[in-house]
Amino acid sequence: MVKKICCIGAGYVGGPTMAVMALKCPEIEVSVVDISQPRINAWNSHNLPIYEPGLDDIVKQCRDKNLFFSTDVERHVFESDIIFVSVNTPTKTQGLGAGKAADLTYWETAARMIADISRSSKIVVEKSTVPVRTAEAIEKILMHNNSRGVEFQILSNPEFLSEGTAVKDLYTPDRVLIGGRGSPAGQKAVAALRDLYAHWVPLERIICTNLWSAELSKLAANAFLAQRLSSVNAMSALCESTGADVTQVVHAVGTDTRIGTKFLNASVGFGGSSFQKDILNLIYICECNGLPEAANYWKQVIKVNDYQKTRFANRVVSSMFNTVSGKKIAILGFAFKKDTGDTRETPAIDVCNRLVADMAKLSIYDPRVLEEQIRKDLSMARFDWDHPVSLQQIKAEGMLEQVSVVSDAYEATRDAHGICVLTEWDEFKSLDFERIFENMRKPAFVFDGRNVVDAVKLREIGFIVYSIGKPLDSWHRNMTSVA
Prior knowledge:
This protein is an alpha/beta fold and about 475 residues long. Helices cover about 40% and strands about 15% of the residues. The protein has helices at about 15-25, 35-45, 55-60, 75-80, 105-115, 135-145, 165-170, 185-195, 210-240, 245-255, 275-290, 290-320, 345-355, 370-380, 410-415, 435-440, 455-460, 475, and strands spanning about 5-10, 30-35, 65-70, 80-85, 120-125, 150-155, 175-180, 205-210, 330, 360-365, 405, 420, 445-450, 465. The strands form three sheets. Strands 3-2-1-4-5-6 form a six-stranded parallel sheet, sandwiched between helices.
């Protein structure tokens, strides 16, 4: 019978997942452990290290009752029956597979520690997104570092959370996926984890597979979602060139029940911690298995995403007389999506860096992202965000002198030549654009990378408006965006 569980890694996945599990399984002691003292301190404070709607209330309700946050990793691993491992699996920045393969260093370190500490049988659950057949490697590490005859069972239980709706996704998941060995011991472990989720998830939504199917399903799900976004973004470029409206095209296409309407919103590009990282991982796996055609197919998803960000930045520059040097550009939104403070792989990073490289002066406002995080993101090399601070490469400080971070949208837009809307925060829809227009340089531009503003109303005020995938006005038709 499961009495204690712990999760190694107190990040975006481990923290919310364990909080909800503690709420739904009050008879089980749940511990979230991490070697980062500042992160654990934040989880034990009134200011949690991540923002997710509804998460604060859950943590306050369960913390210090059956939910605990600690840096005493070894003690909680020793005492637990089930150990979830939710450590980073960043993209490798050097060596074999650099730029594509997942770096499993932190996973291997965790596995060796579990083998060394354990004195009783454990179920070890892969919660991080990992390459196919990682479980096999973890089994070998546990077996060869286990001199006490402790039995380990490895399960794959990938997360399918979306930042901004993580609590809702945990409460009412589309599915819970559990992969395990077909042996009696493996199936017993699967049943133990299934029984935990069955406290609140209907059994018909708990899917049990073999280990390899579960590991690949996570990569496949993110690849399919990202593919949809790149498909509609590629279509948005064609819409602008032909006079079609991407919103109308998506509506017509989405009414086909075989396609549906979800994940068909054109934008400046997709971001987040998973999509690009998982597709790069999938590409590497395809290449390693001698499938270059399959690898090239998935490469195009990322290429289109990069193209969309470049196209947007180029549109800004070309529209403003082909130069933004010395001009103030207001950046509204820096998080990769609304209702989250997550900036990992946000398209705002690439757009801002391209504008800064063209000598623009940026004034950035986001309701949830701190100035420290914005400056850190703009100073780091690609893929460094998921590595320890000691390994991150920092760019020259001079570039950031062109960037200011402000506390509201009106301050950001004052004396600006143009506005770039890069996150679909609801508050941007209700801004007083007449007031904003009066305080901007003329001509005043709005570049809507999320299709959240009322372009017709803004044009009536006097703005020159560009909206992703919408018919171009006469100003933009005469100024070609080269990407």
